[in-house]
Protein backbone atom coordinates (compact mmCIF):
# COMPACT_ATOMS: atom_id res chain seq x y z
CA UNK A 1 0.00 0.00 0.00
CA UNK A 2 2.73 2.48 0.99
CA UNK A 3 6.23 2.55 -0.53
CA UNK A 4 8.31 -0.30 0.87
CA UNK A 5 11.10 2.12 1.84
CA UNK A 6 8.87 3.43 4.64
CA UNK A 7 8.97 0.00 6.30
CA UNK A 8 12.78 -0.02 6.58
CA UNK A 9 13.81 -0.56 10.21
CA UNK A 10 16.89 0.30 12.22
CA UNK A 11 18.71 -2.05 14.63
CA UNK A 12 16.13 -1.27 17.33
CA UNK A 13 13.22 -2.29 15.10
CA UNK A 14 11.92 1.25 14.62
CA UNK A 15 10.69 2.20 11.11
CA UNK A 16 13.08 5.14 10.96
CA UNK A 17 12.26 6.27 7.39
CA UNK A 18 8.57 6.49 8.34
CA UNK A 19 9.49 8.43 11.47
CA UNK A 20 11.57 10.91 9.44
CA UNK A 21 8.85 11.35 6.80
CA UNK A 22 6.15 11.82 9.48
CA UNK A 23 8.33 14.34 11.31
CA UNK A 24 8.97 16.35 8.14
CA UNK A 25 5.28 16.36 7.22
CA UNK A 26 4.40 17.40 10.78
CA UNK A 27 6.94 20.23 10.65
CA UNK A 28 5.52 21.45 7.34
CA UNK A 29 2.04 21.49 8.86
CA UNK A 30 3.29 23.18 12.02
CA UNK A 31 5.02 25.94 10.06
CA UNK A 32 2.01 26.44 7.79
CA UNK A 33 -0.12 28.18 10.42
CA UNK A 34 -0.57 29.08 14.04
CA UNK A 35 -1.07 26.42 16.68
CA UNK A 36 -4.61 27.67 17.24
CA UNK A 37 -5.50 27.33 13.57
CA UNK A 38 -4.00 23.85 13.31
CA UNK A 39 -5.80 22.76 16.47
CA UNK A 40 -9.12 24.02 15.08
CA UNK A 41 -8.56 22.22 11.78
CA UNK A 42 -7.73 19.03 13.69
CA UNK A 43 -10.82 19.45 15.85
CA UNK A 44 -13.05 19.87 12.80
CA UNK A 45 -11.67 16.64 11.34
CA UNK A 46 -12.35 14.82 14.58
CA UNK A 47 -15.85 16.24 15.02
CA UNK A 48 -16.74 15.21 11.47
CA UNK A 49 -16.06 11.63 12.63
CA UNK A 50 -17.35 12.04 16.19
CA UNK A 51 -20.79 13.44 15.31
CA UNK A 52 -21.82 10.44 13.14
CA UNK A 53 -20.60 8.15 15.94
CA UNK A 54 -22.85 9.93 18.44
CA UNK A 55 -25.79 9.74 16.04
CA UNK A 56 -25.13 6.02 15.46
CA UNK A 57 -25.12 5.44 19.22
CA UNK A 58 -28.50 7.14 19.52
CA UNK A 59 -29.92 5.19 16.55
CA UNK A 60 -28.67 1.87 17.93
CA UNK A 61 -29.98 2.73 21.38
CA UNK A 62 -33.42 3.27 19.83
CA UNK A 63 -33.51 0.46 17.26
CA UNK A 64 -31.64 -2.17 19.29
CA UNK A 65 -32.80 -1.29 22.79
CA UNK A 66 -32.90 -4.88 24.02
CA UNK A 67 -29.77 -6.17 22.30
CA UNK A 68 -27.19 -7.67 24.67
CA UNK A 69 -24.15 -5.43 25.16
CA UNK A 70 -20.98 -5.54 27.19
CA UNK A 71 -20.91 -1.78 27.78
CA UNK A 72 -23.82 0.57 28.27
CA UNK A 73 -23.36 4.33 28.15
CA UNK A 74 -24.32 5.65 31.59
CA UNK A 75 -27.13 8.17 32.17
CA UNK A 76 -29.18 6.96 29.20
CA UNK A 77 -29.64 9.59 26.52
CA UNK A 78 -28.00 12.43 28.49
CA UNK A 79 -24.38 11.89 27.43
CA UNK A 80 -25.03 11.36 23.70
CA UNK A 81 -27.37 14.36 23.52
CA UNK A 82 -24.93 16.61 25.39
CA UNK A 83 -22.01 15.38 23.28
CA UNK A 84 -23.92 16.07 20.08
CA UNK A 85 -25.01 19.54 21.27
CA UNK A 86 -21.48 20.52 22.30
CA UNK A 87 -19.97 19.16 19.07
CA UNK A 88 -22.44 21.05 16.88
CA UNK A 89 -21.98 24.21 18.96
CA UNK A 90 -18.20 23.99 18.58
CA UNK A 91 -18.49 23.50 14.82
CA UNK A 92 -20.81 26.50 14.48
CA UNK A 93 -18.27 28.61 16.38
CA UNK A 94 -15.35 27.62 14.17
CA UNK A 95 -14.29 29.94 11.33
CA UNK A 96 -15.53 28.74 7.93
CA UNK A 97 -12.00 28.58 6.51
CA UNK A 98 -10.93 26.16 9.25
CA UNK A 99 -14.00 24.02 8.60
CA UNK A 100 -13.07 23.85 4.93
CA UNK A 101 -9.47 22.91 5.79
CA UNK A 102 -10.68 20.27 8.24
CA UNK A 103 -13.04 18.68 5.74
CA UNK A 104 -10.29 18.94 3.12
CA UNK A 105 -8.02 16.90 5.40
CA UNK A 106 -10.78 14.29 5.73
CA UNK A 107 -11.24 14.12 1.97
CA UNK A 108 -7.51 13.55 1.55
CA UNK A 109 -7.67 10.72 4.12
CA UNK A 110 -10.60 8.88 2.48
CA UNK A 111 -8.51 7.07 -0.19
CA UNK A 112 -6.15 5.81 2.53
CA UNK A 113 -9.10 4.28 4.35
CA UNK A 114 -10.13 2.31 1.28
CA UNK A 115 -6.53 1.38 0.45
CA UNK A 116 -6.02 0.06 3.98
CA UNK A 117 -9.31 -1.85 3.84
CA UNK A 118 -8.39 -3.45 0.50
CA UNK A 119 -4.88 -4.23 1.75
CA UNK A 120 -6.31 -5.97 4.83
CA UNK A 121 -8.70 -7.98 2.66
CA UNK A 122 -5.80 -9.07 0.45
CA UNK A 123 -3.77 -10.10 3.50
CA UNK A 124 -6.62 -12.21 4.89
CA UNK A 125 -6.90 -14.25 1.67
Distance between the termini: 16 Å
* Portion in beta strands: under 5%
Number of helices: 4
| Number of distinct beta strands | 0
Rg on CA atoms, Å: 19 Å
Mean pLDDT: 84
Principal-axis shape: extended
How helix-rich are the residues, as a percent range?
Answer: over 70%
Largest beta-sheet characterization? none
What's the order of the H and E elements? HHHH
- Poorly predicted tracts of residues: none
Query: Which structural class do you get from the secondary structure elements?
Result: mainly alpha
Describe this structure in words.
It is a single chain. This protein is mainly α. The protein contains 4 helices and no strands. It has helices at residues 16-31, 35-63, 78-92, 96-124. α2 crosses α4 (96-124). The longest helix has 29 residues, at 35-63. The protein is extended. The two termini are 16 Å apart.
Short description:
The chain has 125 residues and is an all-alpha fold.
Question: Can you lay out the helices and strands and say which pair or pack?
Answer:
Elements: H1 16-31, H2 35-63, H3 78-92, H4 96-124
Helix pairs in contact: 2-3, 2-4
Features:
single chain; 125 residues; mainly alpha; 4 helices
Amino acid sequence: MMPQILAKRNKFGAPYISIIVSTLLGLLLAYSGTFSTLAQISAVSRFAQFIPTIVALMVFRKTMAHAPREFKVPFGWLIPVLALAVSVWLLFNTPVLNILWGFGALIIAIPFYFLTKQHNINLSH
